[in-house]
Design brief:
By secondary structure, this protein is α+β, with helices and mostly antiparallel strands. It has 13 helices and 44 strands. This is Surface layer protein SlpB.
């Protein structure tokens, strides 16, 4: 990613506070020699009322400070605090101007809240704020993401509250002086649907506002600005030939929905096909739904890489003209210097993932080249990617031995920090008519660890394709005792050396019921997990002592750099500001040229601004530790072992992920240091209820 910062960059207050301004001598409060023009005048033309903030170098007076009877309305300290405010109600507008005989300019300013108004020295250059004032951009407008154009929205909670999310405004609240509401009551627009055609953030709060326009012209009076969180996705009627699939998080909150259609489908017709007491979803439907879900979730921070067998069975029973739901999970972060290669099977489910991170990878940069519609990938990257894929797919039952021309093109056009999907081929032999293929699956990733073909060898009573492995009695599915013993043994043998096993090394009752319903000539999935040979261990940290009330649980991460970013808006001379959102790994990967530009821009920030950024990155790293196998090592120990090795083991000292610290030296140059927090094991306790261990650490921060 190429990052360019203009020399005239101005950073919004919400992100960075205010830029430092050199001091100017203060004119006398009552000067008889400084005679004013007959009257002040309003700001007009290019100097029309403008939004301003304070430098903190001059006070606010009831009259121009050179006038008799002028007294201080707000001192310099108060104005400095107002300049740092995180509320747009503390925005100010300069309305009138007055020029003294000596050329000094004074401006009448008014707070959007109405709490303050008065006069302040503004320098000596007409058309340019100085002295106690500087121009302030209250709202930073951006272009809405393209994926939002696919959706329509409604006001989530119609009413008349003036809270930013209930009614619409002529401009985002408190960003344009006296702009006011567009509508004062949104109840009559409860059923109106809108498109988002504008977006931006308020400088002080950093909250996202959107401009909405009604689909129906009769509702156009409500067109205006509203907080993005004040909207909900509108739902069009479900077509008779469509199944609406709601994509929800673990708490049931709607993230997105899709309408999966079939040309010949009829209302109330099931999506799948029933077979005895179970349901089957066709591979074509499963593959198409998987892709549709993946596309709908782009940009939401959620994913569903693999639709499970249970979810597929649930969808198979769902009927056209109605709705079903799938639970999605938070997407894992992609390092800024890597391309995530998701390897998928014939139904587009992810079977494994490779993060390809060559040494020269830059965030936002293409992995290959793309010129005149022709994408290419150099031989070095092709060979490295091919090798990484082969390693990942070893013993998986899949292979991708030769990248196709289309796959090479897809890789070349993928940017660092984003993902690409490549299809792998199954290496499995066809399932025999008298066999059930049992896939042992890691439930957290959906990855198949091992597969076995459980074969019926009874020559007197051979299994027929489509019949079930078990039997049903009194409405319950049962697996024969002999089958249970043999499958337990085959599972142990197959999974040996993989680091996985059946829970308690035995099929659970639920797994036995699942296998009993499995049909000969087809496959079934059984979840397996990693062994835990001791009690579970929880890690905690405190900044004081083991008995501190501030003790918090530590969480592991596999990332070297903290998974956090900061958005640096560049609004210097541009009517449409661009944003450079840099994560810690992005900053660490900047080229020498980009790093120099970055430091040059940072040199313009005030000390408070740098403190704000530093605090944000550090907070993101707090109570995290880089797990290089320490957790697994702890889970193989017991209470006595932890006590005896509290100060001498690999887990005795842990490190947080790296986070950047920005400081400015006496010459105004920026220095970036990479810092970590160190956790030192201090004590261990055992929970009497579940025998779990709690190891407490103290924290040292650089």
């Amino acid at each position: 990613m190429i990052v360019k910062f203009k020399s005239s960059i101005f950073i919004s207050a919400v992100a960075l506070g205010l830029l430092g301004v050199s001091c100017v001598s203060v004119p006398p409060a009552h000067g008889s020699a400084a005679k004013l023009l007959p009257a002040d005048r309003p700001l007009t033309g290019n100097s029309a009322p403008q939004n301003v903030t304070f430098t903190g170098n001059f006070a606010l007076y009831s009259k121009p400070p050179v006038s008799r009877g002028a007294h201080i309305v707000a001192g310099k300290a108060t104005l400095s605090q107002l300049a740092k405010s995180t509320s747009s109600a503390d925005n100010f507008v300069a309305e009138r101007q007055l020029t003294a005989k000596n050329g000094s300019l004074y401006y009448k300013v008014t707070a959007f809240s109405g709490q303050y108004h008065g006069w302040i020295y503004g320098g000596k250059k007409a058309g340019h704020f100085g002295g106690g004032l500087e121009a302030f951009k209250t709202f930073n407008q951006t272009t809405p993401p393209t994926n939002l154009s696919k959706y329509t929205f409604k006001i989530a909670a119609p009413g008349f509250q003036n809270d930013g999310k209930t009614v619409t405004y002529k401009a985002p609240l408190n960003t344009t002086y006296q702009a006011g509401k567009q509508i004062g009551d949104s109840v009559r627009y409860a059923d109106a649907t809108f498109k988002i055609d504008g977006m931006g953030t308020r400088a002080r709060e950093g909250d996202v506002w959107v401009h909405i326009s009604a689909i129906n012209s009769a509702d156009a009076k409500a067109n205006g600005w509203i907080l993005y969180k004040g909207l909900r996705q509108a739902e069009a009627p479900i077509p008779n030939n469509a199944l609406r699939i709601d994509l929800v998080d673990a708490k049931g909150n709607l993230i997105r929905y899709i309408n999966y259609t079939s040309t010949n489908a009829q209302y109330d017709q099931p999506l799948g096909v029933p077979y005895e007491t179970s349901w089957t979803l066709g591979n074509d439907d499963l593959a198409n739904i998987q892709v549709a879900v993946r596309q709908a979730l782009q940009g939401t921070g959620y994913t569903l890489d693999t639709i499970s067998a249970n979810q597929a069975g649930f969808l198979a029973q769902a009927k056209f003209g109605h709705r079903a739901s799938l639970t999605v999970k938070s997407a894992g972060p992609i390092p800024g210097n890597a391309v995530r290669i998701n390897l998928v099977n014939d139904v587009n489910a992810v079977i494994d993932t490779v993060d390809y991170a060559p040494t020269n990878g830059q965030p936002g940069q293409l992995l290959g080249t793309n010129s005149n519609g022709s994408a290419s990938l150099n031989d070095t990257d092709q060979k490295a990617v091919q090798s990484a894929i082969s390693t990942a797919l070893k013993d998986s039952g899949y292979q991708l031995t030769d990248l196709s021309t289309d796959q090479i093109s897809d890789l070349a056009k993928t940017k660092f920090g984003s993902a690409v999907y490549l299809k792998a081929a199954s290496t499995d032999t066809p399932i025999a008519d008298n066999a059930v293929r049992i896939n042992f699956v890691d439930p957290s990733s959906g990855k198949i660890i091992k597969s076995i073909d459980y074969v019926n060898t009874d020559s007197d009573n051979p299994a027929k394709k489509g019949t079930t492995l078990g039997s049903q009695k009194s409405g319950k599915w049962l697996l024969g005792d002999r089958d249970v013993v043999e499958i337990n043994a085959l599972a142990a043998s197959s999974l040996s050396g993989t680091g996985y096993l059946l829970d308690q090394e035995h099929l659970s009752d639920d797994q036995q019921r699942t296998l009993a319903q499995a049909k000969f000539g087809s496959s079934v999935s059984i979840n397996v997990g990693k062994p835990n040979n001791s009690t579970h261990v929880n890690l905690y940290a405190t900044d004081a002592s083991a008995d501190s009330a501030n003790t918090q649980e530590l969480t592991p991460t596999g990332l070297t750099y903290v998974n956090s970013s900061w958005e640096f808006p560049d609004v210097g001379g541009s009517s449409q500001p661009t944003y450079s959102q840099l994560s810690a790994v992005d900053i660490a990967g900047l080229s020498a040229t980009n790093l120099a530009n970055f430091k040059q821009a940072l040199a313009k920030y005030s000390a408070d601004s740098l403190t704000t950024i530093n605090t944000s990155f550090k907070s993101a790293a707090e109570m995290q530790y880089v797990d290089n196998g320490q957790t697994a090592s702890l889970n193989q120990t017991d209470l006595d072992s932890v006590k005896n090795n509290l100060k001498t083991s690999s887990w005795s000292t842990l490190q947080s992920p790296k986070y950047p610290g920005f400081t400015k030296d006496v010459n105004g140059s920026i220095r970036i240091t990479w810092q970590t927090m160190t956790y030192h094991a201090q004590s261990v306790k055992q929970n009497a209820n579940d025998q779990s261990l709690s190891v407490t650490y103290t924290v040292d921060a650089q």
